[in-house]
Structures are given as C-alpha cells and as structure tokens.
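Task 17 of the worksheet. Students: predict the tertiary structure of the chain below and write it out as structure tokens. Keep your answer in the requested format; marks are given for formatting as well as content.
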Amino acid sequence: MKKALVIIACVVMSSLLFGYYKLGGFKKPEHSKITANDYWIYGKHYKGKLEDKNFATLFEEAEAYISSNNIDGYGAAYYFNNPQQGSDTADAFVGFIVEDSLATPPQGYNVLKIDSREVVQMHMKSHYIVSPINVYESILEYAEGEGIKTKDSPSLEIYRATDDLIIQVPVIEE
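Model answer:
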C-alpha cells in the first residue's frame, strides 16, 4: 500500500513538474534597454478598479475583435499611472496594437499613438499562470543593476499570446 502511494505521488509530482515546464515556468524574463517603435493602439479608455469586471471585459472585447476580424495585431494596455504603487485604480487605454496607422478604428474605439521612446523592456515567454507575480519589480531591478533610471508610468503591456508578454517602462532621459 505504501509503495503504491509513493509511486502515485512520484507520478503526480512528475506530471506537475512537466506541466510547469511546458507552460514556461522555468523560463526567466529577458530584459533590455531599447528604442521602442511608434505604436497605434485602437481601444477604449478605462479609469477604475483593476478588479472591476468592466476592465477585464475590455481585454476580452479586444481579443474577440482581433480574432473575428483577422487583425494582424496584439492585445495591449497603456497605463497612464502605475496601479502597483499603492493604488488599485487604473488609468489605462485598453485595446489592440495595429501596424497600419492609416486604418480606420472600429466603431466605438479610439486611437492612441505612442511615439518612439527609450524604454526598459521585459519579454517573458511563459504562461501567465506560472509567471512571476510582480514583473514590474523585475524590470526595476534590471534597470537599477544597469544604472538606468526609469519612470513608473506610462507603461505599455503587449499581450502577444497567453505565453508571450512584453512590458515597456519609459527611461528617464538625462
């Protein structure tokens, strides 16, 4: 009986570790200082609590629009403030990034142009379920280690897939 439980426990642990591995749990985020491209986000402005279902709905609507219209773009959120800094109220523009700046935005969407700028970029290729909880902290640690001064906001999050996230935080020009 004990032997069977040990074997079952080993199989379960191996399965969990394999799942964690397949989701990218052992991958570390990549950090770099880059000059970010110009971006055009088609989306909607949101100001409110991060936990509000209306906030999540904006992401869902953007993803649904991308997939139902065969848009060559990615989900995105541009945060005008840093809700990580003691406030859970977000001031954000949520939608999707497009490559074609001349395209007409869908009905009900506005356009936000983000100009090229110097940023510290974090690129993480792991599923959000196994990603580090505070990715912004890893960005700040990288910047500090490289002697780069950053601003808390505005920051850009680009959701290329459930296992492919890019976050850009602006660099303070000296």
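Marker's comment: The first strand starts at residue 30 and ends at 36. Strands lie at 30-36, 39-49, 73-79, 89-98, 110-114, 117-124, 155-161, 164-170.
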